Every structure is written in structure tokens, then in C-alpha cells.
Amino acid sequence: MSNAFLGIDTGSISTKGVIILPDGTIVARSYLWTEGNPTDAARRVVEDLQSQINTEEISVVAVGATGSARRLVGSILDATVVKNEITAHAVGTTHLHPDVRTILEIGGQDSKIICVENGIATDYAMNTLCAAGTGSFLSSQAHRLGVEVEEFGPIALTSKKPANIAARCTVFAESDLVHKLQVGYPREDVIAGLCKAVATNYLNNVGKGKRIQSPIVFQGGVSKNVGVVHFFEEALNQPVLVDPDGHLMGAYGAALLAADAPASKRKPFNFDISDFEFTTREVICQKCANHCEIVCVYKDDALIDAWGNRCDKGAIKVKK
User: Fold this and answer.
1) Mind listing the pLDDT tens digit for each residue in 70-96?
2) pLDDT class of 115 with cuts at 50, 70, 90
3) Are 13 and 24 in contact (CB under 8 A)?
4) pLDDT digit string, tens, across residues 23-67
5) Buried b vs exposed e over 220-244: b needs ≥16 C-beta within 10 Å?
6) Are residues 17 and 76 in contact, defined by beta-carbon separation less than 8 angstroms?
7) Could you tell me which of 177, 196, 269, 266 has the C-alpha nearest to residue 235?
8) d(CA 58, CA 21)
């Protein structure tokens, strides 16, 4: 039986998961919507991954978790490794593209840039405050235009004169888009303008002050939009590589980190997490002036993890 490693990346919009072999080969992949419920999304991704492998031939022996809900999902899956998105994306990308110098990433509700030197992340920036220029922004504009967001890229490439869309703010972008349509701009020019605005907004905000050097890898759900890729290449005057599994890179990196964990921490993973009920409760610590909001996770009413305390007074002991 071959050992394998599971990585899961739970974001606000989508939850991604992979199972890899020791050499890094992906044998199962899953990409599902989080739908505001990271616990249920983790269950569904795990079930989807299990359905793609033969559990009599492949044994998952370690789990890595990343993403905005990494602590919660990591507790539920009894993860071996829980790491932030910057680390996971850098590890995954440098494994597949050892010479990468810049990682551009645009997800559902945030975006990030990671600068790499000799395979090590040396600088980064994140934008989590405004959804303008993210996947959810493009999806909402696609809905307004009556177009599937998957069609945005090919339509954008047919434009000969992209409209100038003010996309620094979602509200302004929507107002500008409506105005452009009302005065008769062709739909393909408006769509191209939106794709161009995403690339420009990203470079002017997330990428501001960063040395964007080739090779450049673009990942996240928006990397599947060939229109945005085109306008990144146009603005940077450099080729931008999109890996086929770029939207799964956080999960892939988490799986690689799990594979690198000490062998003493390995144990067979139980896919049957649907048999358990997980709940979270918030406790306000009154033991000092911080009044920390401590998140407690329960598995069938038994406390399995707690975090959020800023000092030892608020630490809640978990029985293993």
C-alpha cells in the first residue's frame, strides 16, 4: 500500500483539496464552493477526494490545512500541519516551478503577491479589504451582463478597444459599467475593460512597490480567465504562466508540507468525518483586560481545539 498526503485549502468562496503521492504526483483533486459553511465544505471535499482513490491501495497518513478557515478545518481533520496561505502557495508553486520569481494570485475575495528568491519566499503582500478585482467581483459583473463568468476571457480577447472601467472600487466599477452600456459600448469592449481593470488594479495595489520578475506564475480561480492573463502580460511585457492546477496550489502546498512532517506524526486518516458532529462556540475571556474572543471547536460535545487568546491566562487546555 502506498502512503499519500492530503492537503485542503478552505477559502471564503471555494474549498480546494488534493491527495498526493510521496513524489508530489496528484492522484485526486477537488474544487467546491464553500457556500458560507467551511465545515460542510471540508466534509464534501474529503468525500470527493475519497471517491477518486482506491483506499485499499492508497493510505493517507498526514493532512495539511491552509486558507482562511485553516484552524477550524485543521481541527476537524486532525491535521498534521496547519500553515498560512503565503507559505502553502509558495511551497506548492516552487515545487512545480523551481525557477519561479513572482507568484500572482487572485482568489474569490482576496489577492496576494509572493516574491521568490532561490525557491524561498522573500516578500509578499495581500489585499483582503476590498473585493474589487477578485473572483467574486467578476462573477457579480458577469451576472449583471447575463454572461457566464467562464466566458469572460474568450469574449474579452475579441475586443479591439477595451473600455476604460474604473475598478478601484466595486461600487464605482458597477456604476461605470452601467454607464458604458447605456451609452452604447459593445459588450465585448466592456468585458475586456473589466478584465484589464482587474490586472491594472492588482498591479497598482497588491503589486505596488514589489519587484515583479520573470518567471511569473499566475494562480487562483481568476487565473483561468484568459482575458485577465492577456492584460497581465500586456501590462508587464512578460509572459505569465498559468499552471493547470494553479487554482489548487494552496491545497497542493499544504499536502507537500504534510509530507515533510516527521514520520512520527503520521497516522492513517479517517475519511468518515461525516459520522461526527462539529460545533464552534465563542468564549469571552474575563481573566485580563484583553477580553479575548476565544474560539472553541467541539467534536460530539468534546473540546478538540481552542484559539484566540493573546496571553496564557486565556489558554484553554484541550484533552488529547
Assistant:
1) 988 998 899 999 999 999 999 999 999
2) very high
3) no
4) 999 999 999 988 888 888 999 999 999 999 998 899 999 999 998
5) bbbbbbbbbbbbbeebbeeebbbbe
6) no
7) 196
8) 9
Cell numbers at 123, concatenated: 516578500
Contact yes or no for 8/65 (Cβ under 8 A): yes
What strand order describes the sheet that includes 58-66?
Answer: 26-33, 14-20, 2-10, 58-66, 81-82
User: CA separation (Å) from 206 to 11, 12, 75, 237, 242?
Assistant: 19, 19, 31, 18, 19
C-alpha cell at 80: 498534521
Residue with cell 523551481: 98
Give me the sheet containing 302-307, strands edge to edge: 278-284, 293-299, 302-307
Which amino acid, 289?
Answer: A
